[in-house]
Specification:
The protein is an alpha+beta fold. The protein has one domain: Alpha-Beta Plaits (2-Layer Sandwich), CATH 3.30.70.100. The protein is built from seven helices and eight strands, in the order αβαββααββαββααβ. The chain has helices at 3-8, 29-37, 72-81, 83-87, 134-150, 177-195, 197-200; strands at 18-26, 48-56, 62-69, 94-108, 121-129, 155-163, 167-174, 201-211. The protein has an eight-stranded antiparallel beta barrel with strand order 1-3-2-8-5-7-6-4. Strand 2 and strand 3 form a beta hairpin. The protein starts with a helix and ends in a 6-residue tail after the last strand. It comes from Streptomyces rishiriensis. This is DUF4937 domain-containing protein. Residues 18-102 form the DUF4937 domain.
């Protein structure tokens, strides 16, 4: 079993798996991509489970990166020790960085793994939910949205995660771009009505990310 397989052998973990989402606007594309490859240095970090990302389909200068850690303690330790050294390679290549941390809650479809090698497209949705509707929103995600996404051709795996302040992230990985488009247009309106999504959500943003294989760690 190679190092990568070993990292994924025991996913999902019981306890708080941490997901880090970074979104930024790139001003020096070549420098940014060169720096992105330096993150291979994450491989030796205790508690690191995988990282990947790519470019926004709608806004070509926007990059998204997703990193997975076994726990907040491992992540905090990495930030205190090694982060700045790895990050220095990308200094000055981007602006407007937004960083959010989420706790993994449950899978969409089959057992989630932080693996990016078998998909070419990632969809991310960030939902800010009314406090009194958070429980309902989570239930609808499990009972209405998950089965619909899981049954869509081209959908490989996904996860649902939560951040403080009633923010939720839905992350899904897809094999074929066309299939994702079909799922979106055919089903979303009907599903949203059934799940009473409008009543739950106070703000919704999202993106479609075309994954870059060289960014995968």
């Amino acid at each position: 079993m190679n190092e990568r397989d070993q990292r994924h052998a025991h996913w999902p973990y019981h306890g708080a798996v941490l997901v880090k989402w970074i979104r930024c606007t790139v001003v020096d594309r070549r420098g940014f991509e060169r720096g992105q490859r330096k993150w291979a240095g994450l491989l030796g970090e205790p508690g690191f489970r995988g990282q990947g990302g790519g470019w926004s389909r709608g806004r070509p200068s926007v990059a998204h990166v997703f990193a997975f850690w076994e726990s907040r303690a491992f992540y905090d330790s990495f930030m205190a020790r090694s982060h700045d050294r790895l990050a220095s390679a990308q200094s000055g290549t981007f602006k407007d960085a937004q960083v959010r941390l989420f706790d993994y809650r449950f899978d969409v479809k089959t057992g989630f793994e932080p693996r990016f090698t078998d998909s070419d497209l990632l969809r991310v949705a960030l939902c800010r939910v009314h406090e009194e509707r958070a429980e309902h929103f989570t239930l609808m995600q499990e009972k209405v949205w998950n089965p619909a996404m899981a049954g869509s051709p081209g959908m490989i795996r996904g996860m649902f995660a939560e951040a403080p302040g009633h923010e939720f992230m839905v992350l899904s990985m897809w094999r074929q771009q066309a299939e994702h488009g079909k799922y979106r247009t055919e089903r979303v309106e009907r599903l949203a009505l059934r799940a009473q999504t409008e009543a739950d959500i106070s703000a919704l943003t999202g993106d479609i990310v075309e994954l870059e294989s060289t960014w995968t760690v």
